[in-house]
Amino acid sequence: KAGVTQTPRYLIKTRGQQVTLSCSPISGHRSVSWYQQTPGQGLQFLFEYFSETQRNKGNFPGRFSGRQFSNSRSEMNVSTLELGDSALYLCASSTTVMNTEAFFGQGTRLTVV
Amino acid sequence: AQTVTQSQPEMSVQEAETVTLSCTYDTSESDYYLFWYKQPPSRQMILVIRQEAYKQQNATENRFSVNFQKAAKSFSLKISDSQLGDAAMYFCASTPRGGGADGLTFGKGTHLIIQP
């Protein structure tokens, strides 16, 4: 059974640009959550999608958005990139809501220059 | 809202020895889950062990076990017979049963070093 796949693994963008990250959950998993990991703030919850609907959203500005497709794959988008958006972005999937066993991908390392 | 605190930024242990990582949490929820995740240099978060708060029995997974003290809101991880492959960042996390508005709440992590 394939694990959670995140693409791309590494990304370098310039301030002001926008970026889209992709996450393919484990087959059969309907919930996908996104987290931002930085040395200063640690792991912070961005949002959770379940059956194509955003279920919860963390305390991030509106520049951070996401969506989920009918096959449960999810994308997150960050517009007008800032230097502070440089981070490891982790995606996690689970069968239902994110409370029992979440499986994480290897993350996308975003560097904003 | 939940908070998770890991007071040990770094721990070091000799190979084959036992080490305990500390975690305290705070929550207003009556039912919740607690987790320990491992993040090796590959960056992938790997679930080590899970504890359901309503279960009094401490969870165990092979060499990994927890000491869950609900009244004290403490959830420590014990690693027995430490191996070089255990070297990683370890994160304690919590979430209410049914999922919370804040997803998984993580502590800042403990960097575990295994001395050969």
Outline the structure in words.
The complex is a heterodimer of chains A (113) and B (116). In chain A, strands 2, 4, 5, 6, 9, 10 and 11 form a 7-stranded mixed β-sheet that branches. In chain A, strands 1-3-8-7 form a 4-stranded antiparallel β-sheet, with no helix packed on it. The radius of gyration of chain A is 13 Å and the shape is globular. The mean pLDDT of chain A is 94. Chain A has 113 residues and is mainly beta. Chain A has strands at 5-7, 10-13, 19-24, 31-38, 42-50, 53-57, 64-68, 74-78, 87-94, 103-104, 108-112. Chain B has strands at 3-5, 10-14, 19-21, 24-26, 32-39, 46-52, 60-61, 64-69, 74-79, 88-96, 105-106, 110-115. Chain B is globular, with a radius of gyration of 14 Å. Chain B starts with a strand and ends with a strand. The chains are: A mainly beta (113), B mainly beta (116). At the A-B interface, strand 5, strand 9 and strand 10 of A face strand 6, strand 10 and strand 11 of B.
